[in-house]
Design a protein that fits this description.
The protein has about 160 residues and is of the alpha+beta class. It has a single domain (about 5-125), classed as Beta-Lactamase. The protein has 4 helices and 6 strands; from the N terminus they run ααβββαβββα. A 6-stranded antiparallel sheet has the order 3-2-1-6-5-4, with helices on both faces. Helix 1 (about 5-20) runs antiparallel to helix 2 (about 25-40) and helix 1 packs parallel to helix 4 (about 125-145). This is Methionine-R-sulfoxide reductase with GAF domain. It comes from Croceifilum oryzae.
Length: about 160
């Protein structure tokens, strides 16, 4: 199976996991991290760091992540990601690091991190998968923390009149 097909499969499986565990954010984060890391052998580690002032704390992980478990605001790639407000990519002799911020409203809630072998390739398809997962996480977080906001029903047949 080529990588594009594998990532499409993972996209569907992660969507099912997010939907299945939508009422339990910690379990959802852990299941998704474990699933992604298990399915793509190039991904050495997948993690979610949460913001707990004044630091980022790794709360959910699968595999090996070279970043410290706790990183103070203003230090390292997690803070760079938060300040930039978008994708951060770092490649060195030891790893490829991808960090994407997770937002709740306009506040950074956490950082989604993928670490890969420096000899492997992280392609645009990988980045697209990561950003889609982050978007799904953000939608779930809004529903979890603001349950009064009604989620859109994209399959409402009444709108097809």
């Amino acid at each position: 199976m080529d990588k594009a097909d594998l990532l499409d499969e993972i996209r569907l499986e992660v969507g099912d996991l997010i939907d299945k565990h939508r009422k339990d954010l910690p379990l959802m984060f852990q299941k998704v991290c474990s699933h992604i890391q298990r399915r793509v052998e190039d991904y050495q580690g997948v993690a979610v760091y949460l913001t707990e002032y004044p630091e980022f704390i790794r709360r959910h992980e699968s595999g090996s992540i070279g970043l410290p478990r706790v990183q103070k605001f203003g230090e390292g790639p997690l803070s760079i990601t938060a300040v930039r407000g978008g994708l951060y990519r770092e490649r060195n002799l030891n790893r490829i690091l991808i960090c994407i911020p997770l937002y709740l409203g306009q506040n950074v809630y956490g950082i989604f991190v993928v670490e890969s072998n420096p000899l492997s390739q992280i392609h645009d398809e990988d980045i697209t998968l990561f950003t889609e997962i982050c978007s799904s996480f953000e939608n779930r977080m809004v529903a979890y923390y603001q349950p009064d906001i009604e989620e859109p029903d994209f399959f409402d047949d009444d709108d097809l009149v």
